[in-house]
Design a protein that fits this description.
Elements lengths: L13 E5 L4 H12 L3 E6 L2 H9 L7 E4 L5 H9 L6 E4 L12 H29 L2 E5 L3 H4 L5 H21 L5 E7 L8 H4 L2 H10 L8 H11 L11 E4 L7
Parallel strand pairs: 1-2, 1-4, 2-3, 4-5, 5-6, 6-7
């Protein structure tokens, strides 16, 4: 990351990454930390937080458990922060094949969409002080939909529209709100697809760059959106998909 962005460009900045204990969130947290930021990541459980602290090569300052479904817990956690410059919302779940059950559908939306809103609302006063920024995590399925994951797809479509709405609502506070929309990224969430030769080949054959993305591919875009280079960008959703949506 330091080969792309100026070393120390986020020094003295405080960054919070929900869902930052693994996968894309962890890569984003590490990227900010590498550039000098003080980074806090959260996971759904204490075990996830402990694993993040012990992960080889991690640069994060703090890892803690936070259930984004618990509004009181979110408010309490944010109240413990002295300062915040960047919020990255990466907490999310997917329940392939089960999301046609309305109860499971509701659970997915509660984490992915309402959880994002809970954190954005809670940190708004802190970001107003620093004129900070928010990066939400949508998905290419916000544009395409997914037969096996109606809850996930609906939640990510909601995140895209929430991002646009909050960009307008928070602009007067000096807060920029954008979103990344990852495509097929090699994480634990997509492990089953990576390991299925026919499914993987179908994905690669439609992807112009002809490979699975890596979490670091997404991290760079998140950092850019919070940098001075993006100072006139708000309310946008940037696909990071190797050209899949263009295929």
């Amino acid at each position: 990351m330091s080969t792309t962005f100026r070393e120390g460009s986020f020094r003295d900045r405080s960054v919070l990454v929900s869902g930052g204990t693994s996968g894309i969130g962890a890569a984003i947290g590490d990227a900010f930390a590498e550039l000098g930021a003080s980074v806090t990541v959260t996971g759904a459980t204490g075990a996830e937080a402990n694993a993040a602290r012990e992960r080889a090569g991690t640069r994060i300052q703090r890892a803690t458990a936070l259930d984004v479904r618990d509004g009181a817990a979110v408010v309490g956690f944010v109240s413990s922060l002295d300062k915040l410059d960047v919020l990255v919302n990466c907490a999310g779940i997917i329940r392939r094949g089960d999301e046609h059950d309305p109860a499971v559908f509701e659970e997915v939306l509660d984490v992915n969409l309402t959880g994002t809103m809970r954190l954005c609302t809670a940190v708004r006063p802190l970001l107003h002080v620093t004129r900070g920024s928010i990066v939400n995590t949508a998905s290419m399925l916000a544009f395409l939909g997914g037969a096996l994951v109606p809850g996930y797809s609906a939640s990510k479509g909601g995140v895209a529209q929430l991002t646009k709405s909050l960009a307008s609502a928070y602009a007067a506070d000096g807060i920029r709100v954008n979103a990344i929309a990852p495509g097929w990224i090699a994480t634990t969430l997509t492990k089953a697809l990576q390991n299925d030769p026919s499914r993987s080949q179908a994905i690669l054959s439609r992807t112009p760059l002809a490979r699975w993305g890596e979490p670091d591919d997404v991290a760079g875009t998140a950092v850019f959106l919070c940098s001075p280079a993006a100072s006139f960008i708000t309310g946008t959703i940037i696909p990071v998909d190797g050209g899949y949506l263009a295929g």
